[in-house]
Design goal:
The complex is a heterodimer of chains A (about 130) and B (about 160).
Chain A: E1 4-6, E2 14-18, E3 23-30, H1 35-56, E4 63-72, H2 74-92, E5 97-104, H3 108-120, E6 125-130
Parallel strand pairs in A: 3-4, 4-5, 5-6
Antiparallel strand pairs in A: 1-2, 2-3
Helix pairs in contact in A: 1-2
Chain B: E1 3-8, H1 11-28, H2 32-59, E2 66-73, E3 77-87, H3 88-102, H4 106-117, H5 127-138, E4 143-148, E5 153-163
Antiparallel strand pairs in B: 1-2, 2-3, 3-5, 4-5
Helix pairs in contact in B: 1-2, 2-5, 3-5, 4-5
Classes of the chains: A alpha/beta (about 130), B alpha+beta (about 160).
């Protein structure tokens, strides 16, 4: 499956979804001008990846999605939820997945946002604080 | 006054305003948590102006695109004020949503946030989600006023404040 790589800008996050290398990262600021236009291909990629994994019934390695946002707008939040919910489906089907929620030690709001997502999902969340 | 802008908003202007406030906040606000909160709410307010205008313009392209945004502070609070033209037909749903949010306690607001996140609607901009997010982060009442302009439009003024400490 071809990797999805989107370079970050001042208002949109850097995204690397690479199934071959087992790298899954979302990092930066997410307040794109058009959240739908930005996230539609990301969701499409994740949908295809998860469909393939569910058909196989397993993955070579555990998927760890590393999420490290400085900020994400409420309009981005729903798209993030959609991406996480697809991974949640894998977890519900006993395919090992995890979200590593990374936040700056000065950014308690970001930690709380991760906790809110955790409450809405069943897959494991690992919180990591950075200085 | 940290920021005051009037005119037509687009993403280029919003990015410039955000950059300007980011720099000013580092100068005037020592508490990083407050810096972050001001930033979060400011971005939501600015996106709110743009989202509201785009929705309004889609329904009636003749609506005046003029909008305002101010961010100021005194010894106790940061104050956010936004203003833009909206169609009168959207007024009631907006009023109802803000009144509903204001009537909730902190946990109620979080529960409403979760409901908005999982309602299955996925739009480019969700005013309801933005409002409840602002209410949670500001920990204050959302204030609003609709000043009727004519039979089709009103000027919608939205205000919120957050404690300095």
């Amino acid at each position: 499956m071809q990797a999805l790589i989107i370079a970050g800008t001042e208002s949109s996050p850097n995204i690397i979804f690479d199934a071959e290398k087992n790298i899954f990262e979302m990092k930066g600021e997410s307040r794109p001008e058009n959240a739908k236009a930005f996230y539609d291909p990301v969701i499409e990629w994740m949908k295809n990846f998860c469909t393939e994994a569910l058909q196989k019934g397993s993955l070579k390695e555990k998927v760890v999605l590393c999420v490290f946002f400085d900020y994400f707008s409420s309009s981005s939040a729903k798209y993030l939820m959609n991406i996480f919910a697809r991974l949640d489906e894998l977890h519900k089907n006993n395919i090992p997945v995890e979200i590593k929620w990374i936040y700056s030690e000065i950014d308690i709001e970001m930690k709380e946002s991760g906790e809110e997502f955790k409450k809405l999902l069943t897959l494991p969340f690992k919180f990591e604080v950075v200085k | 006054m940290l920021l005051a802008f009037t005119g037509e908003f687009d993403m280029k202007i919003i990015n410039a305003l955000i950059t300007s406030v980011k720099i000013k906040l580092k100068e005037v606000e020592q508490i990083t948590r407050i810096q972050k909160r001001v930033y979060y709410i400011m971005v939501e307010c600015l996106e709110g102006i743009l989202g509201s205008y785009e929705t309004t313009a889609k329904a009636n392209p003749k609506v005046n695109p003029f909008s305002i945004f101010t961010l100021s502070r005194d010894a106790d609070y940061y104050y956010f004020i936004s203003g833009n033209y909206v169609l009168n037909e959207y007024m009631d749903s907006q009023k109802m949503m803000i009144d509903k949010i204001n009537a909730l306690n902190a946990e109620g607001k979080r529960e409403l946030f979760r409901q908005c996140m999982t309602d299955g609607k996925i739009n480019n901009y969700s005013a309801d989600l933005a409002l409840v997010d602002i209410a949670i982060k500001s920990n204050n009442t959302l204030e609003y006023e609709f000043k009727k302009v004519d039979s089709n439009t009103s000027f919608y003024i939205f205000q919120v404040k957050i404690k300095v400490k």
